[in-house]
């Protein structure tokens, strides 16, 4: 079956009907990465009687269609955009417009249809998995000396990773398609994919939820967003899949071509990969919403410095709230303190002021942001903290004061708030801080993380440059990071060699 990209536009002309209805209406479906729109020549639900701007627009759970090319099409959860009234010699017509986020190509389905497995095609995954599918060798004919280039396309061995937390199994693999013209060209396309196979069939929404968690995991490891490009779903025991076109808010697809582009490629993982995947889906439940915030930050290139700073520090706080208690004392013990503080509010305090004070008292047992970040810093360990946060590895007070200044606009904090280049540097370090705590939660070894923080990926190079600058600022004699050393052989004068005398006799 053809692989239909979620990022490309698709159009289908055909005839459409509601399940169980004999009414058939011609129309055209246009899908884009933003949404799917169906323009019908008439209305499934004609407008009758009084029409008001507040009228509720109908939602059709499923709309089935057959394209002019014979494709079975389904539009799921389609909502009416509007109905036009046209009058002419042929009578009155009511063209209806529908929009949806879900299109299934290849079958008539319902919202409650369940699927035995779904395959997600992810650009860049074929490289990240570190299992090449194409091999090139060169042979020389002993008689003629002519060289022959030999290209071999081999199937790669996939990984199967059980994920008990969601009662499913993931299958990771690489597929190839090839074509050749004996006179002009050879083409081989390699695609990486992962199949999510639950132990019992699930709804499409369930698969998309799991894929969202997987996308976050891959983004943290790869150092770049790795969104889905195409989706194939399997119904029951069917061998032929259906294509799912769903409008997802995604970053640009990964375009990395080499292993060294990735922060932590599959080949750099020291721990058992199946264990890491299982850990991720088990542990991420505690920080599901903060992890989605983290993914959105790492997937967006156009955030302004201040927005990025506040978002990163909010994501760090969210991780702590999901993973740590975060209280000064047990809640039961604080109940007595809360009662005493509330009772001590003078009767002369106005009602709205009293409510505001009680609200502050209600949250008075929650530890400060500074204490939360310090606990996360201890989770890194001294070595990683020094590498990621810089200096002595302690959380800079400027981070806290900057966040508090932009939250409360306390002018007393303004002098210690960072801006400009300092804020950019803080953002780079907080991004690495955020990535590191999630990867450590997953089970990535600190040694692996430290090694990859010093590799050639763009992700690591940003931090390395900041550390070199900071080290040179503290100690101007510190090495700046030597790429190579150019010198002379012993006894060499360093001058260019004289041209050889062609008449000289070799000795």
How widely separated are the two ends?
Answer: 71 Å
What's the number of structural domains? 3
Q: Describe the biggest sheet?
A: 6 strands, antiparallel, barrel
Strand proportion, as a percent range, falls in: 15-25%
| Residues in helix, % | 25-40%
Strand order of the largest sheet: 1-2-3-8-5-4
Structural class: alpha+beta
Give Rg in angstroms: 31 Å
Ranges where pLDDT stays below 50 over 5 or more residues in a row are none
Backbone shape:
globular
What integer is the average pLDDT?
89
Oligomeric grouping of the chains: single chain
Q: How do the helices and strands follow one another from N- to C-terminus?
A: EEEEEEEEEEHEEEEEHEEHHHHHHHHHHH
- Give the count of helical stretches: 13
Spell out the key features of this protein:
6-stranded antiparallel beta barrel, 507 residues, 3 domains, 33% helix, 17 strands, 23% strand, 13 helices
Outline the structure in words.
With 507 residues, the chain is an alpha+beta fold. The chain has three domains: 85 residues; 144 residues, no CATH class; 188 residues, no CATH class. It contains 13 helices and 17 strands. It has a six-stranded antiparallel barrel. Strand 2 and strand 3 form a beta hairpin. The longest helix is centred in the C-terminal third of the chain and has 23 residues.
Please outline the helices and strands:
Blueprint: E1 10-17, E2 25-31, E3 36-40, E4 59-67, E5 72-83, E6 86-88, E7 91-93, E8 96-100, E9 102-105, E10 117-121, H1 125-128, E11 134-140, E12 147-153, E13 159-163, E14 168-181, E15 185-198, H2 204-222, E16 230-234, E17 242-246, H3 273-283, H4 288-298, H5 305-323, H6 331-343, H7 351-362, H8 369-380, H9 382-389, H10 397-408, H11 420-442, H12 446-452, H13 458-474
Antiparallel strand pairs: 1-2, 1-4, 2-3, 3-8, 4-5, 5-8, 5-9, 6-7, 9-17, 10-15, 10-16, 11-12, 13-14, 14-15, 16-17
Helix pairs in contact: 2-4, 4-5, 5-8, 5-11, 8-11
């Amino acid at each position: 079956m053809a692989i239909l990209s979620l990022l490309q536009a698709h159009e289908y002309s055909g005839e459409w009907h509601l399940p169980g209805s004999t009414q058939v209406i011609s129309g055209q479906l246009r899908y884009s990465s933003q949404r799917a729109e169906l323009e019908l020549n008439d209305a499934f639900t004609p407008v009758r009687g009084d029409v008001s701007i507040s009228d509720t627009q109908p939602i059709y759970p499923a709309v089935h269609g057959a394209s002019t090319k014979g494709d079975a099409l389904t539009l799921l959860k389609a909502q009416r955009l509007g109905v036009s009234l046209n009058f002419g010699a042929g009578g009155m017509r009511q063209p209806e417009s529908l929009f949806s986020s879900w299109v299934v190509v290849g079958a008539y389905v319902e919202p409650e249809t369940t699927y035995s497995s779904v395959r997600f095609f992810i650009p860049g995954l074929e490289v990240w998995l570190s299992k090449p599918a194409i091999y090139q060798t060169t042979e020389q004919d002993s008689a003629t000396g002519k060289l022959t280039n030999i290209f071999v396309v081999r199937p790669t061995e996939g990984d199967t990773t059980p994920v008990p937390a969601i009662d499913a199994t993931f299958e990771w693999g690489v597929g190839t398609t090839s074509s050749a013209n004996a006179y002009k060209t050879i083409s081989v396309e390699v695609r990486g994919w992962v199949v999510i196979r639950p132990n019992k069939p699930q709804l499409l929404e369930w698969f998309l939820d799991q894929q969202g968690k997987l996308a976050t995991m891959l983004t943290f490891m790869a150092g770049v967003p790795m969104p889905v490009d195409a989706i194939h779903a399997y119904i029951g025991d069917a061998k032929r899949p259906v294509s799912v076109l769903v409008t997802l808010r995604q970053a640009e697809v990964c375009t990395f071509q080499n292993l060294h582009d990735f922060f932590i490629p599959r080949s750099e993982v020291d721990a058992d990969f199946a264990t890491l995947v299982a850990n991720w889906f088990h542990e991420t439940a505690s920080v599901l919403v903060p992890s989605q915030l983290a993914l959105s930050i790492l997937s967006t290139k156009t955030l302004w410095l201040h927005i990025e700073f506040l978002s990163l520090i909010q994501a760090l706080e969210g991780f702590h709230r999901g993973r740590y208690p975060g209280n000064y004392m047990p809640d039961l013990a604080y109940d007595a303190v809360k009662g005493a503080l509330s009772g001590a509010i003078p009767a002369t305090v106005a009602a709205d002021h009293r409510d505001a004070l009680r609200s502050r008292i209600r949250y008075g047992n929650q530890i400060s942001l500074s204490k939360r970040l310090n606990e996360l810093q201890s989770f890194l360990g001294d070595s990683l903290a020094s590498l990621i946060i810089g200096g002595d590895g302690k959380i800079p007070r400027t981070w806290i004061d900057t966040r508090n200044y932009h939250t409360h606009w306390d002018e007393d904090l303004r002098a210690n708030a960072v801006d400009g280049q300092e804020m950019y540097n803080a953002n780079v370090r907080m991004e690495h801080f955020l990535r590191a705590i999630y990867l450590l939660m997953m089970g990535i070894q600190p040694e692996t993380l430290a090694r990859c923080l010093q590799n050639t990926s763009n992700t690591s190079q940003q931090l390395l440059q900041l550390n070199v600058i900071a080290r040179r600022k503290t100690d101007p004699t510190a090495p700046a990071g030597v790429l190579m050393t150019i010198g002379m052989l012993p006894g060499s004068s360093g001058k260019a060699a004289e041209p050889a005398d062609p008449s000289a006799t070799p000795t």
